[in-house]
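stage 2 :: seqdesign
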């Protein structure tokens, strides 16, 4: 049997994936290896290779945040080797210059855009992917998280359904429970009937088909110049609708979406007009009380 070369990037990728590397980042790492060459050794990756990788991603029109995710993938593989000097002999890490990111995507779907998506995908006879997009919109899950749901993760609490995501499938490495809307519940219940306990719920759908279908949608909706109209905006739509309702506190929105840092959560703070009006009402009451006290003196 042919012995594997442990210094191949493909081998390091395999080991990290077996250790539980988040599914989407593992996919990005695989695409990075394809761009660098599948015969590339970890000790061969140079500053020039990293820069060529960045140039390729920029030529494809990727946003700074997306480029950083790909750089994070190659960085993780290089660090893995660098921390194991006796095996890989990687004495120096190539220089990685991270792109400056904005404060985060603000793009979310308007109700009319949601209706247009429903109309188009129904006409295209792609109801399966339509249901996936609606599920993402109602749960705020990342695409990779949704596609990792197994039947055993879905729990029925007296008619209230919750998906318990284990740490192995979440981006921040922490488990979380996501309650389902009636719409998301109806989608899930139909899939549960066809699945075995350990089956993936959305096993009939593919990650890259979901991405490519979304690109087709963007073109069909004449939104090709709107670079923020990506699948991730479904997640932002969920958070935005919760925030705009004024009925859900920010920390609860962060908990549902799996945000670990306050910096990520507070992006939605400007979307809470009802809560701000409530704050003004409190100040008005205080002013009224103070005025009445002054007049009685």
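stage 2 :: out
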């Amino acid at each position: 049997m042919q012995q594997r070369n442990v210094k191949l990037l493909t081998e390091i990728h395999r080991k990290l994936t077996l250790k539980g590397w988040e599914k989407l980042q593992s996919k990005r790492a695989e695409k990075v290896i394809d761009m660098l060459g599948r015969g590339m050794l970890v000790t061969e990756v140079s500053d020039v290779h990293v820069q060529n990788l960045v140039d390729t991603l920029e030529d494809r029109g990727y946003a700074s945040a997306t480029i950083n995710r790909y750089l994070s993938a190659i960085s993780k593989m290089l660090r893995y080797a660098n921390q194991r000097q006796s095996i890989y002999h990687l004495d120096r890490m190539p220089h990685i210059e991270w792109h400056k990111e904005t404060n985060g995507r603000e793009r979310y779907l308007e109700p009319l855009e949601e209706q247009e998506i429903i109309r188009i995908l129904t006409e295209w006879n792609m109801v399966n992917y339509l249901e996936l997009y609606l599920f993402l919109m109602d749960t705020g899950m990342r695409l990779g998280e949704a596609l990792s749901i197994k039947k055993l993760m879905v729990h029925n609490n007296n008619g209230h359904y919750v998906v318990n995501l284990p740490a192995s499938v979440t981006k921040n490495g922490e488990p979380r429970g996501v309650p389902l809307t009636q719409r998301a519940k109806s989608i899930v219940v139909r899939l549960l009937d066809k699945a075995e306990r350990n089956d993936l719920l959305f096993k009939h759908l593919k990650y890259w088909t979901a991405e490519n279908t979304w690109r087709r949608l963007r073109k069909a909706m004449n939104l090709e110049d709107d670079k923020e109209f990506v699948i991730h905006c479904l997640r932002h739509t969920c958070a935005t609708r919760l925030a705009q309702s004024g009925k859900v506190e920010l920390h609860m929105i962060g908990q549902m979406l799996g945000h670990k840092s306050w910096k990520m959560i507070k992006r939605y703070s400007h979307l809470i007009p009802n809560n701000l009006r409530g704050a003004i009402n409190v100040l008005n009451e205080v002013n009224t009380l103070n005025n009445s006290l002054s007049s009685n003196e």
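stage 3 :: structure notes
- Strands lie at 154-157, 160-165, 176-179.
- The chain has 14 helices and three strands.
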